[in-house]
Specification:
By secondary structure, the protein is α/β, with parallel strands linked by helices. The chain contains eleven helices and eight strands. Strand 1 (about 40-45), helix 3 (about 65-75) and strand 2 form a beta-alpha-beta unit.
């Protein structure tokens, strides 16, 4: 229960602070909350599907890191209550992480344990790479007595367009989605081809897998970064520059993130001591976000 209590509390990034009252009165069911999130945000790569063009200046919305910043922009675009779906052109321009983090924030506001997870999704009909870096929500389902993965970004329009056979409200082990720690271990053991995983056709292999692994490590310690955040050399150095000692550290991180609940104390202890996480926290402190 200690773990559930930890993830039921807001982080410095997910805490809506002065705007917490905006979450009062939102649906108490998961499908309802996901619909609210989808009515506030629009994934930039799918804008054309909604027949809108994103002006260059609005791309800055992608860099809004905290929930208070996101809510401020959402209300600036449309001051309606959050439960009112915005037309696509008045939704905050977002990436997958924003959908996941906003849902995490809403769930935590209701006392439901939730956390951001980073992995690779294979249900976007992509060929190169087959599995794309993707950020989704994991929440504690009390009735099932287990954690459930949810992809709040996939709405009805794109479910039909992609002919998805999965349920975005419950990404199961049979779904083509793999958490970063699992992918790292598979590739290190030669059980998967690193080139099948990436962030773009030109960014595949172990570097983006390492990037996702470290961001999952952050998220599980309630530091829910934006995908662009790279504040230590370990996260984006060339693969041939990664030392054996660093690979062993990443092996340990993969094991811990793959077994969060049974290794929770070890996960937190390691995060407090690694130079990588210290650099991340120092950067956020300097930005007055921790």
């Amino acid at each position: 229960m200690l773990i559930q209590k930890y993830y039921a509390q807001q982080s410095a990034i997910t805490d809506p602070r002065d705007n917490a009252h905006l979450f009062d009165g939102l649906p108490r069911d998961l499908p309802g909350l996901v619909k609210v999130v989808q009515g506030l945000l629009i994934y930039i790569e799918w804008a054309k599907s909604y027949n809108i063009r994103v002006p260059e200046e609005r791309r800055q919305e992608l860099y809004l890191r905290s929930v208070p910043q996101m809510l401020e922009r959402i209300l600036a675009l449309d001051p309606s209550q959050l439960s009112v779906p915005r037309p696509p052109e008045r939704r905050k321009v977002s990436i997958c992480r924003d959908f996941a983090v906003l849902l995490v924030s809403m769930l935590r506001h209701q006392g439901i344990p939730a956390r951001l997870r980073i992995g690779f999704a294979g249900y976007f009909a992509a060929k190169r790479p087959r599995y794309w870096d993707h950020r989704i929500t994991e929440y504690w389902n009390e009735s099932l007595n287990r954690w459930v993965l949810v992809d709040a970004m996939v709405d009805d329009l794109h479910r039909k367009a992609l002919n998805l056979k999965i349920d975005p409200l419950e990404i199961t082990k049979d779904s083509p989605f793999f958490l970063a720690g699992d992918v790292w271990k598979r590739c290190r053991a030669g059980r998967a081809d690193p080139e099948d995983f990436g962030d773009s056709p030109d960014d595949r292999g172990m570097p983006p897998i390492r990037y996702a692994l470290l961001h999952d490590f952050d998220a599980l310690n309630k530091v829910e970064l934006v995908g662009f955040d790279a504040w230590h050399s370990l996260i984006n150095k060339a693969e041939d520059e990664v030392t054996e000692g660093e690979k062993e550290l990443l092996d340990e991180i993969a094991e811990l993130t793959d077994h969060v609940d049974s290794r929770f104390d070890d996960l937190q202890a390691l995060y407090r001591t690694t130079p990588y996480s210290q650099a991340v926290r120092n950067r956020l402190h300097s930005m007055q976000m921790l």
